[in-house]
Amino acid sequence: MLEIELRPEEFALFRKYIYEKVGISLSDQKTTLVKGRLNKRLNHLGLKSFRDYYDYLVSDVSGEELSFFVSAISTNVTSFFREGAQWKWLESYLPAFIASKKEKKIRIWSAGCSSGEEPYTILMFLQHHLSDFERWDIKILATDISSKVLTHAMKGAYDPKAVEGLSKEIIARSFEAKKTEEGRYQIRSSLREKILFRKYNLVTDPFFFKNRFDMIFCRNVMIYFDDVTRHDLIGRFTTLLPKGAPLFLGSSESLTTHRESLKLLGSSIYQRL
After folding, report:
1. pTM (two decimals)
2. Domain 8-73: top CATH class
3. Which residues have C-beta within 8 Å of that of residue 180, sequence separation ≥ 6?
4. Which of 6, 139, 154, 160 reaches 20 to 30 Å from 196, CA-CA?
């Protein structure tokens, strides 16, 4: 594979374009990451320079190349029941939450759902803790900017290594009894039907939601944004949460703003005031 250099002026073009398009803030320290993760792509496309790739990227009106670029420079690492302390907290929160519901209806947003482990975990969790789970009208909106990870998420098929941390009880209840032809564990269709997967840009797409959510998960997404973008996004999240509803962030993410509208409960869990 041909090693193609990324010049500072080329990196500056990518930095400006990506910030404007998806809000990701690339510091100078990310030069090596961008070069390393995109070199293979340039070779695959037969391009001789990063300037050529920049022109290719901005001329793609479909948005698919932008989606590829974002996936390449992001870390789409996730797993079932990630952030164990937050699930423990949710276990204690659930009884009062359920008791407060006038209708058997739950609406949750998994923002930045990656390959789907998070929204499926939410359903596994509710399935385990609600004795009348099937009687509830549960819908999860699961969004991500990457078409690639959404395609994976919608299939709901996972390698044995991905499910090795799950109990036999959860595997039996949430996955089909028969594995796929590729030997993967397949999420039951009855669970997949409760999730609406959509490609969505948290920074530039409008907040079109008519109704509010009972809780929002947006974990390990805002680490890519600068302070201005984070502040704006959190502010918009608060408009979609009723009083008392939780907002879950990644364990390495914390808020220094919006203290008038969000209270820290612990483990990067915030409650709408």
Report:
1. 0.91
2. mainly alpha
3. 157, 186
4. 160
Please report, in tens digits, the pLDDT of each residue of the chain (273 residues total): 788 999 999 999 999 999 999 889 998 988 999 999 999 999 999 999 999 999 999 999 988 899 889 888 887 778 999 999 999 999 999 999 999 999 999 999 999 999 999 999 999 999 999 999 999 999 999 999 888 899 999 999 999 999 999 999 999 999 999 999 999 999 999 999 999 999 999 998 988 888 899 999 999 998 889 999 999 999 999 999 999 999 999 988 888 889 899 999 988 999 999
- How far apart are the C-alpha atoms of 84 and 267, rounded to whole Å? 9
CATH classification (class only), 84-272:
alpha beta
User: Using an 8 Å Cβ cutoff, are 252 and 266 in contact?
Assistant: no
Q: Can you tell me which residue has the tokens 């078409």?
A: 147
